[in-house]
Amino acid sequence: MKSSTLLIAALLAAPMAHAHITIEQTSAPAGAYQKLTFRVGHGCEGSATSGITVILPEAIARAKPMPKAGWAITIGERDVSWKGGPLPDAQYDEFVMQVKLPAAAGKQVFKVIQQCEKGRAEWTPAFDVMPPQ
Ligand SMILES: [Cu+2]
Questions:
Q1: In angstroms, what is the span from residue 42 Cα to ligand 1's centroid?
Q2: Quick one: DSSP state of residue 67?
Q3: What are the C-alpha distances in Å from 121 to residues 48, 107, 116, 130?
Q4: Domain boundaries, the chain
Q5: Which residues does 67 contact at the CB level (< 8 Å), separation at least 6?
Q6: How far is the CA of 133 from the centre of ligand 1 (A)?
Q7: Taking phi first (over 0 means left), then psi (-120 to 50 degrees means alpha), and beta for anything else, what does residue 99 get?
Q8: CA 31 to ligand 1 center in whole angstroms
Q9: What pLDDT is recorded for position 10?
């Protein structure tokens, strides 16, 4: 049973070594038109990424995604999706959008669903809206 215990320990530790899906930019003033770059550091436990859906926080009304070769974009009421690739687990890529930040300062949390050829993962990257300048 010792080897299975080690395997479980390795699986629990593995995600900590990754970048997950994060937002490159960290903060900007309220009311600004802001570029957000969602960074995809790996797939789903080795499986290639075939889709990314970004669900907007309540305070952000809409987003304009940047076109991306090899990926089809869908713009929904509260979300933006890219489907295509696939992006191999061993490669890195970025998905970009522009949003209008809310008038009030505060932390905005996005929900990102990563769809892979096998399995999926969910992330909650955050962005800080600073007081207007
Ligand atoms: Cu990770």
A1: 6
A2: P
A3: 12, 22, 8, 29
A4: 19-130
A5: 73
A6: 34
A7: beta
A8: 31
A9: 53
